[in-house]
Specification:
The complex is a heterodimer.
Chain A: E1 2-3, E2 13-18, H1 24-40, E3 44-47, E4 54-58, E5 63-65, E6 74-79, H2 86-97, E7 112-114, E8 135-136, E9 163-165, H3 182-191, E10 200-204, E11 215-216, E12 225-227, E13 250-253, E14 263-267, E15 278-286, E16 293-302, E17 305-316, E18 325-331, E19 337-344, E20 354-362, E21 369-373, H4 376-381, E22 386-388, E23 392-393, E24 399-405, E25 411-419, E26 434-440, E27 453-458, H5 475-478, E28 480-483, E29 489-503, H6 504-507, E30 518-526, H7 532-535, E31 557-561, E32 564-568, E33 575-578, E34 584-587, H8 588-628
Parallel strand pairs in A: 2-3, 2-4, 4-6
Antiparallel strand pairs in A: 1-8, 5-6, 7-9, 10-20, 11-14, 12-13, 13-20, 14-19, 15-18, 15-20, 16-17, 16-19, 21-30, 22-24, 23-24, 24-25, 25-29, 26-27, 26-30, 28-29, 31-32, 33-34
Helix pairs in contact in A: 1-2
Chain B: E1 6-8, H1 17-23, H2 37-40
Classes of the chains: A alpha+beta, B alpha+beta.
């Protein structure tokens, strides 16, 4: 449901500014939202470098945006308090890219029924339709799953839904705030006439005989086999979990058919990386001896190494047997290369081997940790269940734990806790500006079709609790005693998160629960560099920070020139800001108006001067002639 | 439960975009769209 008119389009790479007014957590969430656009769509984002038009994200009241590129230079998009959810950011950016809400499509009455008497009085206009002279649905069917759809309760005056879907199955689907839907992506790529993606590289579920162009090595003991079932397990593949008769294939290394140390090598097709960092993700099943291992290599080609240089990236050992396991491997490849999977027979009797399925490769950052929850359905059905994750460490060394609250169904809550850890004495307390991102994985085989549920929180070192302690202080100081399942004692700090992470209905939808397994992906990043105040290097006592006393307005940037703080004002094709603080706005239109009006003013002035001078001359002339004439009675005078 | 002593970022209310804007009394087109002068006309 897009705004008609090429003039409203942005370039495929959109210049943006994250203004200082934004909360630091929101800045991190916005950057994560950009990564989702880069994975699923052909849209990219780059810091503004003076382009005529750009999107300036700031914190004003509420969450809102303009629709389309308005060519106003600094185009505002507000991510206010409570708007720092990734799908909210994606929603507002879809507006900026040129999309209206889904239920305002001209054909919406075929798919939903608006119950007008349940709408807050005075809010009925929010359910208006854009007819097809101003909006284009891009030849895509109505999408109940769109991230641009109102929820069933939008603007309700009571408790009854204002929107009733004509297909009842979608009643609780509309209003999803998980991620871009497949159709959102399709529309966006159609609107911008492109299908490429910056960060997606490949997705393989082995359903096609060509096995995604992967090749068997000739320098190994046996080949990997494309099968749909192994007597010793797995009984079925991971993509379809045996739900589709005649499909459901995966690759299997039959380790019992080789001696200890025997291998099977499978190489991917050749890739040409663009970003220099990649995340390899796949599901692995071990039905062998439990000592089999999977080695991941990259084969990098260069002009002086046509065969490619093989580098071991990761050895995956002690693979839990008897179920599909999710693995992530971080790669850092900068040139033409292949990913290589080497199955290696371990010691001990083997009754099966290794199986691989649902490989995804993308130029994104891998999550730091995976919390694998088995037998989720049973846990979910246990009254008053609450789940704590195993302990993890952030890259900075902070120990943490995740708490999944299943005690307040139909809402599922999730919280991030710092806990006592091995590095506490060397760490900074209270814990400063670490952003914890918790993602409930939608286990769709294709990474591009996932709609994972993600929330982020950031540790604010100044946050205090009711008793005056710092919330993010050392858990050994402000935490409470707790015990790991093995009885080890530790201290757990306060939990910070949301009790409405996801609903019971939604967690049972899509592929959040697959094979009775749930995965929560965890990333804890230091985002203190995003903090506007701390991002400026703290001025040492001798040098005064000249810009600290200068506030540039309208997106102006303070710079120090010849030891003097000046504002560099933004400008565009036909507009500019000026003045000491960029407080004044100019535009060619204004200049023309000023030029024309001053020309007219000068002309009028000249005219007045001319008229006055003519009048004076004539009066003077008349006086002149009357003073020279003798006193002659004026009679009939005859000319002689 | 007390031993969890958890703090909610959104006060435990699952507010959609439009609820947030409504509570703030924002008069936005379709709940979260800002119109420029051309569109406003």
């Amino acid at each position: 449901n897009s705004l008609i008119g090429e003039e409203y389009r942005w370039p495929h790479t959109i210049p943006y500014v994250l203004e200082d007014s934004l909360e630091i957590n929101a800045k991190g969430v916005i950057l994560n939202a950009f990564e989702r656009y880069r994975l699923k769509t052909c849209i990219d984002f780059k810091p503004w470098a003076g382009e005529a038009n750009y999107i300036s994200v700031f914190k004003e009241s509420g969450c809102w945006s303009y629709v389309g590129n308005r060519h106003i230079g600094r185009q505002e998009l507000s991510i206010g308090a409570n708007c720092d959810r990734i799908a909210t950011v994606q929603h507002e950016f879809l507006h900026a890219l040129g999309f209206w809400h889904e239920q305002s499509r001209f054909d919406r009455d075929d798919y939903v029924r608006i119950v007008w008497d349940r709408i807050l009085s005075g809010r009925e206009h929010n359910f208006n339709i854009h007819d097809d002279t101003e909006s284009d649905s891009l030849n895509v069917p109505y999408d109940y799953m769109s991230v641009m759809h109102y929820s069933k309760n939008a603007f309700q005056n009571g408790t009854e839904p204002t929107i009733v879907t004509r297909v009842s199955d979608f009643e609780d689907v509309i209003g999803q705030r998980l991620d871009l839907s497949d159709t959102d992506v399709l529309k966006l790529n159609r609107l911008y006439n492109c299908t490429s993606s910056l960060s997606f590289m490949d997705s393989c579920n082995f359903e096609l005989e060509n096995v995604c162009g992967m090749i068997q090595s000739s320098r190994d003991s046996v080949d990997w086999q494309r099968v749909s079932q192994i007597p010793g397990g797995p009984e079925n593949d991971h993509s379809n979990m045996g739900q589709c008769q005649g499909s459901g294939f995966f690759m299997h290394f039959d380790s019992q058919s080789v001696n200890v140390g025997g291998t099977a090598v499978l190489e991917s097709r050749i890739f040409y990386p663009k970003r220099g960092f990649q995340c390899l993700e796949f599901y692995l099943y071990d039905s062998g001896s439990g000592t089999d291992q999977l080695n991941i290599y990259v084969r990098e080609y260069s002009v002086n190494d046509l065969d490619g240089k093989l580098t071991l990236v990761k050895e995956i050992k002690e693979i839990p047997t008897g179920s599909w396991q999710l693995y992530y491997v971080t790669l850092q490849v900068t040139s033409k290369s292949r990913v290589v999977f080497e199955g290696l027979r371990g010691a001990g009797a083997s009754s099966g081997g290794l199986s691989i399925d649902d490989i995804n490769l993308s130029e994104t950052q891998c999550p730091h940790h995976i919390w694998h929850i088995r037998n989720f359905t049973q846990i979910f059905d246990t009254p008053n269940a609450s789940l704590y994750s195993p302990p993890f460490y952030s890259p900075k060394g902070y120990a943490f734990q995740i708490y999944l609250n299943l005690q307040s169904l139909p809402n599922v809550g999730i919280y991030f806790h710092l806990i006592s850890g091995a590095n506490d004495d060397q760490l900074q307390w209270p814990c400063p500006w670490q952003q914890a991102t918790m993602t409930l994985l939608d286990q769709n085989p294709d990474i591009r079709q996932r709609m994972s549920n993600q929330r982020s929180i950031t540790t604010d070192p100044f946050m205090t609790t009711d008793n005056g302690n710092y919330f993010w202080d050392n858990p050994s100081k402000v935490g409470k005693l707790a015990f790991f399942p093995n009885g080890t004692q530790f201290s757990r700090g306060g939990g910070y998160g949301t009790s409405v992470f996801i609903t019971e209905k939604r967690i049972k939808s899509r592929d959040f629960i697959k094979g009775n397994d749930v995965y929560i992906l965890l990333t804890v990043e230091d985002i203190s560099h995003l903090n506007s105040t701390s991002s400026q290097p703290a001025p040492t006592s001798s040098v005064r920070d000249l810009c600290s006393s200068v506030t540039c307005e309208n997106g102006g940037i303070c710079t120090v020139q010849d030891d003097k703080a000046e504002c560099r004002c933004p400008s565009g094709e036909d507009w500019w800001y000026m003045g000491e603080r960029c407080e004044k706005r100019g535009s060619t239109q204004d200049t023309i108006v000023i030029a024309v009006s001053s020309t007219v003013a000068v002309f009028v002035l000249m005219l007045i001067v001319t008229l006055v001078s003519v009048y004076c001359v004539r009066r003077k002339y008349r006086k002149g002639t009357s003073s020279k004439t003798p006193n002659v009675a004026i009679e009939n005078q005859y000319a002689f | 439960t007390p031993e969890n002593f958890v703090k909610d970022i959104d006060a435990g209310i699952d507010q959609d975009i439009f609820d947030i804007n409504e509570d703030l009394g924002l008069e936005l087109f379709q709940g979260d769209i800002r119109l420029d002068r051309v569109q406003g006309r």
